[in-house]
Amino acid sequence: SKWMEKCARNSPIFKNAKIKVIPYPLDLKLWSPIKQNIARDILNLPKNKKFILFGALGGTIIKRKGADLLFQGIKKLNQILEKDIWDSLEIIIFGQTKSLSDNLPRNIKIHNVGHINSDYLLKLYYSAATMFILPSRQDNLPGTGIEAQACGTPVVAFKTCGMTDIVDHHKTGSLCKPFETESLAYEMKWILKNSSKSNEIRLNSRLRAEKLWDEKKIAKDYKN
User: Which of these, 187, 217, 209, lies nearest to 81 by C-alpha position?
Assistant: First the structure.
């Protein structure tokens, strides 16, 4: 990420070195959009709901992953979101084995799907989701973020570290003020309220992945 490049340039060891940013490559045939209704049919999820997706291995245990910020943001979202939209909202959490209901409002349904060992299954969840939340306090270039974008899923993240390499603000998702949970709530609301732009945002997300993380493009970067 450009953030890590900046860290290296500010380092006494690497400040005079030649530094080139080359992001992770993605297999864009594997990480590709599935029509949302089809993905929801396969996962047995209702088509008339809006889904917030969050997941990281140990994501609710490791503080830098920011799960606590997400939980606070959802509680604030409950306070500012119109009742009809809130009532249509559900949360999907992967990567965890224990229930997280105590951390979230009691008037929202939570799907705790546990560890996902299949890339295809994970792609289904990305495609089924209304948005993917990446609430990290610190991260280089999270694979979940670029995978979600490749599947055409808007990403909401704090404007920090490598997350700014992933999200094009209000074009492929939203960037929030670090680490303000009220800002996170308002940006989640922006995605939920702009359903008319949903197809445009999802298309922009996929196009961004093709532009930045295609394997052929990355291979050429390494060759150069």
Answer: 187
| Alpha carbon 182 to its chain's center | 18
CA distance 161 to 140: 6
Mean pLDDT of the chain: 93
Task: Give the count of beta carbons closer than 10 Å to the beta carbon of residue 118.
Answer: 8
> pTM of the predicted model, to two decimals?
0.94
- What are the tens digits of pLDDT across the range 62-104? 888 898 999 999 999 999 999 999 999 999 999 876 666 677 8
> Tokens for 61?
């245990």
Using one digit for the tens of pLDDT, what is the confidence trace for 38-57?
999 999 999 999 999 998 77
For the chain, what is the HEC assignment?
Answer: CHHHHHHHHCCCCCCCCCCCCCCCCECCCCCCCCCHHHHHHHHCCCCCCEEEEEECCCCCCCHHHCHHHHHHHHHHHHHHCCHHHHHCEEEEEECCCCCCHHHCCCCCEEEEEECCCCHHHHHHHHHHCCEEEECCCCCCCCHHHHHHHHCCCCEEEECCCCHHHHCCECCCEEEECCCCHHHHHHHHHHHHHCHHHHHHHHHHHHHHHHHHCEHHHHHHHHHC
Tell me the Cα Rg of the chain.
17
